[in-house]
Amino acid sequence: MPQLVVIVALMVVLPVVSILAEYLLSAGVASLVALVGKWFVFWAVGWRLLLAGAWQIGNPAYTAQTIFRIADPSAHRLVAEIGFGNVAIGTLAVLSIFNAAWVIPAAIAGLLFYALAGAKHVFNKDRTGPENLAMISDIFIAVVLAAYLATAWIEAALRS
């Protein structure tokens, strides 16, 4: 249950609250597309992957056993390396809050990660409950990021 609460907070609640707060504080002047990109990248890509990566590095047995059902301790090294990648992408996304030019690259990296991970989960017919949660949240955020990127690129093309 705590995992579900954290995922819902990072993937839905915090981005939506942040978007609404900034939009209202800007008196409706801020671009909703830019805000969706900014806050979903910051929370759903940045903090979710940063926290997941830190957990995978610090406690690789949990991911190996709970998500992948691998009891072999030699898998822990591989899970830790997955954590390094998550920390790298997550850090880029968190830091994008300070540099708007990093939002689209972080969104692309996040989209690729979540879409590929979600697809891999879909094709695993013997999923665990935690893996189902990962699959649903991965696909959800991949769809949000794809919609954001498509809309941002269309807006950019119309401006030029």
The total beta strand count reads 0
Shape: elongated
Report the span from N to C terminus. 47 Å
Instruction: Work out the helix count.
Output: 6
Mean pLDDT: 94
Structural class: mainly alpha
Give unreliable regions as ranges: none
**CA radius of gyration:** 16 Å
The SSE string, one letter per element, is: HHHHHH
Helix content: over 70%
Biggest β-sheet description: none
Portion in strands = under 5%
What number of structural domains do the residues give?
A: 1
Précis, in short:
With 160 residues, the chain is mainly alpha-helical.
Give an account of the 3D structure.
- The structure is a single chain.
- With 160 residues, the protein is mostly helical.
- It has one domain (2-159).
- Helix content is 82%, strand content 0%.
- It contains six helices and no strands.
- The chain has helices at residues 2-25, 32-58, 60-67, 75-95, 103-122, 129-159.
- Helix 1 runs antiparallel to helix 2 (32-58).
- It is elongated, with a radius of gyration of 16 Å.
- The mean pLDDT is 94.
